[in-house]
Design goal:
Blueprint: E1 6-10, E2 31-32, E3 35-36, H1 37-47, E4 52-57, H2 62-67, H3 72-80, H4 84-94, E5 99-104, H5 111-116, H6 119-122, E6 127-130, E7 134-137, H7 142-153, E8 156-162, E9 172-179, E10 184-192, E11 203-211, H8 215-221, H9 232-242, E12 245-249, E13 253-256, H10 260-271, H11 278-299
Parallel strand pairs: 1-4, 1-6, 4-5, 8-12
Antiparallel strand pairs: 2-3, 6-11, 7-13, 8-11, 9-10, 10-12
This protein binds 1-O-phosphono-alpha-D-glucopyranose.
């Protein structure tokens, strides 16, 4: 059986939810405290045994390439000043121990089209797709969990998680058929962004996919679906009609950094574990909580006697 060695990270999205910050900058470079979100994804790939990553980029995405490249001027400056800690942080982003490749998606035709750009890179092997809007935290990285599942089933394996029913229209949703072992389901149907009233479940696709290469033939023929875009979910649904596609339920912590509030929550959570700022941040949150409670009390309507 072929080892899963390759990952594809689609990063061509326009980042409209973060405008104007993303007018001239890649949303994948927005930092969580001090680390760009895409670096978390690359680190998850590394911890999962991935050897080669293709990043599908677009306009304004050059900083992603630069981030993982060496910066000789900066490095010699830090060396001269004896800032060895910072120097290591900078060098670690270049010597990550994974091969990075880049391809551009010239027109934003949808996630399915972005993944299709990886056809030549992937060849005839199973591979993973990792979306940059979802950061995952769990003892065994989610990508590794999908690979472990694939080693047992030899089939495609899609990560899912329960979401509130009213949010199904933001996600690809599965119609689970039956449990096939720990946290794994066989699936009747994959539906992209269904209305909450029509959603077959509240198990949502959360941005990690293990796919067999047969997906490319289907993506090539895939017609636009939800939002007029070529949807990966629609091609996966077709794949499931010719070979088994399983879903693995994620039990760890997911951070949605593709949305303003999720991004702020993630920054706070990460800050609370960051050695440089965690104590001051904790004190500040407590202080703020006290102030807000006092404010709320002042504005509460007085009860009538
Ligand atoms: C994409 C996928 C969707 C999936 C989601 C996870 O949607 O199309 O199936 O549930 O990512 O984050 P997007 O967020 O790009 O609209």
């Amino acid at each position: 059986m072929a080892k899963v060695r390759k990952a594809v990270i689609p990063a061509a999205g326009l980042g409209t939810r973060f405008l104007p910050a993303t007018k001239a900058m890649a949303k994948e470079m927005l930092p969580i405290v001090d680390k760009p979100t895409i670096q978390f994804i690359v680190e998850e790939a590394l911890k999962s045994g991935i050897e080669d990553i293709l990043i599908v980029t677009g306009k304004s995405k050059r900083p992603i390439e630069d981030h993982f490249d060496s910066n000789i001027e900066l490095e010699s400056n830090l060396k001269e000043k004896g800032k060895t800690g910072l120097l290591k942080l900078v060098e670690d982003t270049t010597n990550i121990g994974i091969n990075l490749f880049f391809v551009r998606q010239s027109y934003p035709k949808g996630l399915g089209d972005a993944v299709l750009h990886a056809k030549a890179f992937v060849g005839n092997e199973p591979f993973v797709v990792m979306l940059g809007d979802d950061l995952m935290d769990s003892p065994v990285p989610l990508t590794k969990q999908l690979i472990n599942g694939h080693e047992k089933t030899h089939a495609s394996n899609i990560a899912v998680m329960e979401v509130p029913q009213e949010e199904t229209s933001k996600y690809g949703i599965i119609d689970p058929e039956s449990h096939v072992g720990d946290n794994m389901y066989s699936v009747k149907k994959f539906v992209e962004k269904p209305d909450p009233k029509e959603a077959p479940s509240n198990l949502a696709i959360i941005g990690r996919y293990l796919l067999t290469p047969e997906i490319f033939v289907l993506l090539e023929k895939q017609e636009p679906g939800a939002g007029g875009e070529i949807q990966l979910t629609d091609a996966i649904d077709k794949l499931n009609q010719t070979q088994r596609v399983f879903a693995t339920e994620f039990k760890g912590q997911r951070y949605d950094v593709g949305d303003k509030f999720g991004y702020m929550k993630t920054s706070i959570q990460y800050g609370l574990t960051h050695p440089e700022v965690k104590d001051r941040l904790r004190d500040y949150i407590k202080e703020l909580a006290g102030d807000l409670t006092a404010q709320d009390k002042k504005t509460e309507p007085k009860s009538k006697k």
